[in-house]
Amino acid sequence: MVFKDVHGHDHIFERLLRAKTRGMFPHAILFAGPKGVGKSLAARRLIQTMSCKAAEDKPCLACYPCRSIENGICPDLRILGKLEGKSQLTIDVIDEAIRFLSLKPSELGCKYLILEDAELMNVESANKLLKTLEEPLGHAALFLIRGSRKPSIATIESRCQKFVFAPLDDESLMLLLADLDLDDRQKAFIRAHGGGSPGYARKLIEEDVFHYAEKFLEAIFASREKNPYVLADAIMEFVSTGKSDETMIAKRPRLVRLLSILASVLMDAVKLAEGAIPSELTNAYLEKEMLVYAANSDRGKLLRNVEATLSAIKDIERNLHPTIVLENLFQTIWTRGWTA
Ligand SMILES: [Zn+2]
What we know:
This protein is of the alpha/beta class and 340 residues long. It is built from 15 helices and five strands. It folds into two domains: 10-166, P-loop containing nucleotide triphosphate hydrolases (Rossmann fold, 3-Layer(aba) Sandwich), CATH 3.40.50; 207-335, Zinc Finger, Delta Prime, domain 3 (Up-down Bundle), CATH 1.20.272. The chain has a five-stranded parallel beta sheet, sandwiched between helices. The longest helix is centred in the last third of the chain and has 26 residues, at 248-273. The chain is elongated, with a radius of gyration of 23 Å.
């Protein structure tokens, strides 16, 4: 393992560190892969390794450069990304990035910029950054970090050396989450929905998505109809983090996360009804509940529930009123076909 807290991507670090030793470190690097898999942290660890004063076991995280990078006070490293409340990576961020890259390095001998959320660059931002990448960057290196989503920045990507971060296997994922002290059910949930990404898995636990998904599924699996309005309200309470000024931009991803989990469970129920074995399911840990649920409904109804959930996700993404979308969804799930 090259870095203690970044697992599963050693081949990437080894290649880049070899390039550094040969004086051929790329000026523009793209780290692509699922959100929360450690791309930005990896960039930071690489910069620390290249700047570390220790004789061996770099990065030591104890010498001056290691610490100043870790504490976010190093004048030669900036980490920029989408501004709070914005849905795109806007031109003012790119202007700031370009200004930073043009400065002279003071401590590390190089200016390092980590630009997160690169997939959210709009055309204006992308064109501006592209102009910078067309000139030699001199004493500067840029790490572009982007999620798995199809990029709108192909022209920029073609100027970068690209490295793809794969999702982590179960073992590495659990190792990185050891501090969360998860019980067996939470672990099963993370395996099913964490997407091999420690950052995302952490979010699911820390934002209490696990807890709400359990409540949500309990209501879906319940043998008696629930009041759709009460459940919709409970879910909306969950997606609001309590900040009064919070916009729907912040709430929507939480709601979509929760509904995606529901869709995957309902899809598994269809597969079970079609004779699938547990190892073929995403949510094998819910097998018992899903069997009862599937046995009480016909296949057509099960499929309609999956479709209704997927279209609810689309409606939320299209900005329809979330409470109304949820009420309609719950009504569809409960009022047609539940026979127990
Ligand atoms: Zn060090």
